[in-house]
């Protein structure tokens, strides 16, 4: 069967999820959405987890201008909070488990915890427990977050043909930032801030809960995440690259609006919300850009490029933890 | 301030816990007990997490007879379930986050997940979500578990001077097993089974909930864990080594009852329950051995050795993830 690396992330997760067996009470939604959903009496809980690994998700190299352990803790919290946002939920509490090499300076761990506390304080997420273990290798920080949703959670599977596809905020900044921003120009500093300190869209997720037919957060890039939502909903997608929202800073850094929108198509770690909305449904007061629509052909995973050509999203690139992503 | 390894586990956790700030609703008990406690309306939830790291907590060396990836998954689940048991709780659901090197065979991951599912099926713990990320180093598997307690949870802090100290089952087998069991004698096989496949004491923990003044699970060994409970309760301890429960198999392997009881004093990963009980309180039908009592002097952390001598528990040895444990 081969190695984890040869199989690739998507296939591995599917395989492992099958091994975990069928969903059973109190679990109502299991592996495959941004959070698991649990029903406890009249309450609906959300449960998710995320890991950040040294060398994979962050660097500790002191010569790298992206090195910022406080931002690492912030991003760990933000990525988990973003999973709650993607279901229309709000946070209750989190626990952290940290695998540390003996030679790590204590100040690094403290900085990471400080960042985690900062994002937790800002969004009402107390960190209530944890564990520290030793690893003879890169540090790995895992957060598990518990949340609650008032009413029905928004799943990935509720999209229907004809629904509009929209995203919150603007896209592409994190990828552009993380690919290396080494000078001090104002646009690059703005991207750097955005990439290192993403904001989980909790209020927007809650506001969208009544209108959205499906929702998820953008952690691996639109070209990778949108097909996931479409597969869960059993529909196809058609996205217009020219409608992707990008910041002025990204346009400046990329040199053109077209180049910026290509970044927006494949950029990961934006932690904006990807949402589908029945046509004519009331839009809440959230910064939303309509970028395409769901189609009836599940095999259609296309975008309309800058020159009007239709191309498969799989050719746009994107991020995968294992396998041959660009 | 120095490195994580120089500071040691206990001091590091205390330092990090302070950085996380004060407990706030819905959290009622934060870092420092087996689980965090959350109040949600009239329900009391438990939240805990635990990580197992390749090379630290398990081996994948095919020439080592202890290598068993299914047992790794089982132990990961069992250690988390044991944390619920230690509060008198029962499981609701868990999420797993796995950091994997690209070269790991897929079959290893599948075996670990199979073991996790086995212990989950046996004890009613559905695994409802997860995450897989890449690590350029040892594999790290983190489980976060959510549980519930019917009534008040049993904390570490409730012990009072004069209370009896008791443990469930028998102790020392896991350490003896994990130190290396390489022949096939019947006693060693029994220890091996016990060390690789610990049973979380959920039913016993629930049964003890009405009677116990304090409770925790034995993961790092009695000599390490009992002072933790005593510090949380603000009391001292006096333990009689000769009263420690040991299995016939451990006595056989160790060569004498005294040697076996020394293993029992320092052995980690037993996952039995350590419980304190007011004298005269009704004892539930649980295999319990009274091994000592709590004293009024918080500085007293002693055991009475095989020859009747009083010695500090700190001289008995034990397990620490960082620092100079034996």
Can you put this structure into words, describing what you see?
The structure is a homodimer of 326-residue chains. In chain A, a hairpin with a 6-residue loop joins strand 1 and strand 2. In chain A, helix 3 runs parallel beside helix 7, helix 6 packs across helix 9 and helix 9 packs across helix 10. Chain A has two domains: 145 residues, 60s Ribosomal Protein L30, Chain: A, CATH 3.30.1330.10; 160 residues, Phosphoribosyl-aminoimidazole Synthetase, Chain A, domain 2. With 326 residues, chain A is α+β, with helices and mostly antiparallel strands. Chains A and B meet through helix 1, helix 2, strand 2, strand 3 and strand 4 of A and helix 1, helix 2, strand 2, strand 3 and strand 4 of B.
Short recap of the structure:
The structure is a homodimer of 326-residue chains. The first copy, chain A, is α+β, with helices and mostly antiparallel strands. Chain A is 32% helix and 25% strand.
Keywords for this entry:
326 residues; alpha+beta; 2 domains; Phosphoribosyl-aminoimidazole Synthetase, Chain A, domain 2; homodimer; seven-stranded mixed beta sheet; 60s Ribosomal Protein L30, Chain: A
Just name the CATH architecture of the largest domain in chain A.
Answer: Alpha-Beta Complex
Q: What percentage of residues of chain A falls in helices of 4 or more residues?
A: 25-40%
User: Order of helices and strands of chain A, N to C?
Assistant: HHEEEHEHEEEHHHEHEHHEEEE
Sheet-strand content of chain A, in percent, reads: 15-25%
How many strands, what sense, and barrel or not for the largest sheet of chain A?
7 strands, mixed
| Quaternary structure annotation | homodimer
Terminus-to-terminus distance of chain A: 24 Å
**Low-confidence parts of chain A lasting 5 or more residues at pLDDT below 50?**
none
The largest chain-to-chain contact, stated as pair and per-chain residue counts, equals: A-B, 82 and 82 residues
């Amino acid at each position: 069967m081969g190695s984890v690396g040869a199989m690739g992330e998507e296939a591995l997760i599917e395989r492992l999820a099958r091994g975990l067996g069928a969903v059973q009470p109190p679990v109502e939604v299991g592996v495959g959405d941004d959070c698991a959903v649990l029903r406890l009496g009249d309450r609906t809980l959300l449960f998710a987890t995320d890991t950040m690994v040294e060398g994979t998700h962050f660097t500790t190299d002191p010569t790298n201008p992206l090195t910022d352990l406080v931002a690492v803790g912030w991003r760990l919290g933000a990525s988990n909070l973003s999973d709650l946002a993607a279901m229309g939920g709000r946070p209750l509490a989190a626990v952290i488990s940290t695998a540390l090499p003996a030679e790590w300076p204590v100040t690094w761990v403290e900085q990471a915890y400080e960042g985690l506390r900062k994002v937790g304080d800002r969004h009402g997420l107390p960190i209530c427990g944890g564990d520290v273990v030793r690893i003879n290798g890169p540090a790995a920080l895992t957060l598990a977050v518990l949340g609650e949703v008032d009413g029905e959670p928004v799943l990935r599977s509720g999209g229907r043909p004809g629904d509009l596809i929209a995203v919150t905020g603007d896209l592409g900044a994190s990828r552009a930032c993380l690919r290396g921003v080494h000078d001090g120009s104002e646009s690059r500093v703005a991207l750097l801030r955005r990439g290192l300190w993403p904001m989980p869209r909790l209020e927007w997720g809650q506001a969208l809960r009544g209108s959205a037919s499906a929702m998820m957060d953008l952690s691996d890039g639109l070209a990778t995440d949108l097909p996931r939502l479409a597969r869960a909903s059993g529909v196809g997608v058609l996205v217009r690259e020219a409608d992707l929202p990008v910041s002025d800073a990204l346009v400046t850094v990329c040199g053109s609006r077209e180049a910026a929108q290509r970044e927006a198509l494949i950029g990961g770690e934006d932690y904006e919300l990807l949402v589908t909305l029945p046509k004519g449904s009331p839009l809440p007061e959230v910064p939303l850009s309509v970028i395409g629509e769901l189609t009836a052909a599940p095999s259609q995973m296309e975008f309309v490029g800058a020159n009007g050509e239709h191309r498969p999203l799989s050719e746009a690139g994107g991020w995968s933890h294992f396998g041959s992503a660009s």
